[in-house]
Amino acid sequence: MTAVVGGPPPTGDASGAGRYPSRFRASGVKARHLRAHVLVVAWLALALAAVAAQESLPVARWLAVHMFLLGAVTTAVLIWSEHFAVALLHARIPDERWSTARLATANLAVAGLLAGVWAARPLLTAVAAVSLVAAATAHLVVLVRLGRGALGGRLKPIVSYYRTATAALIAGTVLGALLATGGAGGPDRYAGLRLAHLHVTLLGWIGLPVLGTLFMLWPTVLGVRMRDRTTKVSRQVLWLTGSGLLTAVTALALGRRWPAVAGLALYLAGVALAAHLLARTVRRGRPVSAAAAWTLAAATCWLAVAVTADLARLATAPLAAAQTAIDALLPVLLVGFVAQVLIGALTYLLPVVLSTGPRDRAAVRALLERGWQARAAALNTGVALAALPLPGAAPAAGLLLAAVSGGAFLALVVPVLVRGGKGLPSDADGGSRRPALWGTAAGVVLTVLAVLVANSGGDPAGPTNAAGTAGAGSGTTRTVAVTMADMRIRPARVEVAAGTSLRLEVTNDDAQRHDLKVEDGPATPMLAKGDTRVLDLGPVTRDSRAWCTLPGHRAAGMTMDIVVKDAAATDTAGHQGHTQAAAPDDHGALDLSADYSAGWRPRDAALAPAPGGTVHRVELHAAHTTVEVAPGVKQQMWTFGGTAPGPTLHGKVGDVFEVTLVNDDPGMGHGIDFHAGSLAPDRPMRTIQSGERLVYRFRAEHAGAWLYHCSTAPMLQHMGNGMYGAVVVDPPGLAEVDHAYVLVSSELYLGTPGSTAQVTRMRQNTPDAWVFNGMANQYAKRPLKLRAGERARFWVVAAGPSDGVAFHIVGTVFDTVYKEGAYLLEPGGAGGAQVLDLATAQGGFVETTFPAAGHYPFVDHDMRHAEAGAHGMVEVSG
Fold it and tell me: What is the DSSP string of 576-623?
């Protein structure tokens, strides 16, 4: 039989179209469809208006996308999934009042979400998200209940697509709310959750119902018999796409790239299987609606293209890069796939549902198909131009073409909805053409204007002044280079003297678009990668903040503090009477909340077991090495073995260490001093020049945690730039523990090694940070991990060069303290310890057992040090 949307076998009319069951042609159902599609058109019109406003309203691009997807497409899917489910299951039509209530709740929730994000009202956003989840859950319940006791049919499995898609909408709403309200966490987690949100929404909520509906809509549009394998293939496709999507979204949310690749591969296999069946359904002859057929075919092809490109990018790049890659695919998914599916489905379905008979249906269809070849060619050419990496104005021209095509179709739909599918005569007097032609012309003009405004941009040389005039300061001007990337604004803090005229030179180094809005001050337009704008704040007299206005970006950490300091306390040398970017040694506070660079790894704090034998031979190379010492901050360090601190040496009392020092530094001499050895320093600790080697041999006669460091003067500089390390000599009879760690505390001085500015800070003991194992905040980013009830030993060495350490773990009491070769506390006693206090160059260890699962911070209890990088975390699992 001819494939239709359920009910008894349809009869054909002159056009070859299947006739809908009479229960869908009742006036009440028809009126509800009409009202609902007016909502769809209204959301589409609002989306176009938002596109036109995106230069003056930075959040407008986000609003346009979500008005289109959450507003127009979600409304359409809610309408048609219920409609088709009733037909496919031969079920009773649900109560109209409840269907209307669900649709109204969903639309009000979407409006609340958009308003909450636009006005930065997290509570409103959260309430609206809960309302949308409630509406989606109610829709899912209806879809499930429709299947109970229904007669069903050969296409009954397609309803499972709608149920799965509704579950995807619920998941997508929850993820979107987390992103918009700041619940996504830092940049690493934000990237994964955003990718999960995009995939579950585009491929789940929209992709699955489209694929399912095509199994029965495609043969109907073509006017051919459904293939016998359709039911079996539809089940296979749902298994592949559903399980693949679940795997991919879960993996992305957890930050696991390769399981996500496997999930997307399954999804793509499902799309390919569906496309193969649809292609084999095509036959010679005239389809019922050529416009709908070609549009739906093109949309399916773009879905396959987008998933293939997404899969390839995810397989070859980390999540942060994949996040920007899917942004580049949005024109393909939103316009090529989603918009074309909407256009194709409405082109076929509106005449069927809203018309009163064959003649009326033919007239409505003729109106909606007017100029479809030109519109389809423009839209698909536009998608190709926007998606391909073409230079110049090609992407903007592509979006213009696609927008004109979409606006033209929208203008054709309006008279159909206004007349309710009635009174569109097919006579030759042009009565039906006038409103269509006028509507098409108006739609095209408005769309062109919208796209031109959206892509016009601003004056790149025209900075905005918060005070109303450029450079209205009192003679002191400071320019700060500001970059935006990886969900961070750097610097995160700018300090200026009161009255200083501040200019921010803002550059977007990210593939994502960003802007910068200053509190009660100017804002940049939305900046693409590489774009730069200057914000002139004028004389700054009070503290303020700046942030990216895109939804969720401020909550995820894209903020900057502008702090006014007393002029006497702020060094303004070099900024009098002229503008100057920050010099390399002009260091403000580090942004310890930022993330380390992609590919960064923390230093392994675990103490490796002492090697076998009694003689330990080691070769250490002295060299200059550039390493990441703080989040996003790379610094040239002077190193032993390529790391700062150098490698930890481990042995037992009586072992011999034979260390060969090789000086690979082309311009500087170095030596080495092992505190664990007892020998005259004249020869073994002498300075060797570039290319020379020195063998340093000593016997470890005493247990303890010992420092080694460069012995070349000035030692303050050599040690302050990283030339130090630890030697651990186990006490006799040392008990085994579940975990043993080594933490070397030290100070961090940024800037050019040996420069006047750096050496001055060393002498004044004003470091940029205090650190454990050479990197600020590294174990807060990557906690040490163990299980509840396990015993851990922490060896600590204070390398300085000027400060000691007060090592403390929050939430625990030390039952063992070993300091400078002696036990101060051993297990079994009545007492406990809270801190291992070490002066510069001292060492020891503490032991504790973690009682329960949780997060236990460890710090240098000198709070200046802890708040400036000397802290980390022990993550204890159950």
Answer: BTS--PPPTT------TTSPPPTT------BPPPPPSSSEEEEEEEEE
Contact status, residue 771 vs residue 800, Cβ threshold 8 Å = no
Maximum pairwise Cα distance, the chain: 113
588 or 785, which is more confident: 785
Residue 344 CA to chain centroid, in angstroms? Answer: 32
Paired with 771 in beta bridges are 746
- SS3 assignment, position 574: coil
Whether residue 436 contacts residue 419, with contact meaning beta carbons closer than 8 Å, is answered with no
Secondary structure of the chain: what % helix, strand, coil (to 5)? 45, 20, 35
Among 431-445, 772-786, 825-839, 849-863, where is mean pLDDT lowest?
431-445
- Of 730 and 18, the one with more pLDDT: 730
φ, ψ (nearest 5 deg) of residue 767: -70, 165
Q: Are 535 and 508 in contact (CB under 8 A)?
A: no
- In this structure, are residues 844 and 796 in contact, taking their beta carbons and an 8 Å threshold? yes
Cα–Cα distances in angstroms (integers) from residue 493 to residues 150, 524, 542, in the given order? 64, 18, 14
Extended strands (E) in 594-732 = 615-630, 633-640, 649-652, 656-663, 673-674, 693-699, 704-709, 724-730
Asked if 47 contacts 72 with a C-beta cutoff of 8 angstroms, the reply is yes
With a cut of 80, say whether residue 584 has pLDDT above it: no
Task: Find out whether 401 and 381 touch, Cβ atoms under 8 Å.
Answer: yes
pLDDT tops 60 at residue 4: no
Phi, psi of 584 (to 5 degrees): -60, -30
Q: Specify the pTM.
A: 0.56
Q: Tell me the per-residue pLDDT of 424-479, one tens digit each, with 9 for 90 and over.
A: 544 433 444 444 344 434 444 444 344 333 333 333 333 333 333 333 344 578 88
Q: Average pLDDT for residues 816-822, to the nearest whole number?
A: 95
Show Cβ contacts of residue 225 under 8 Å, excluding neighbours closer than 6 positions.
Answer: 1, 2, 3, 219
Structure letter (DSSP) for residue 331: I
> If we measure between CA atoms, which residue out of 845, 18, 744, 874 comes closest to residue 361?
18
**How far, rounded to the nearest angstrom, does the alpha carbon of residue 704 sit from its chain's CA centroid?**
46
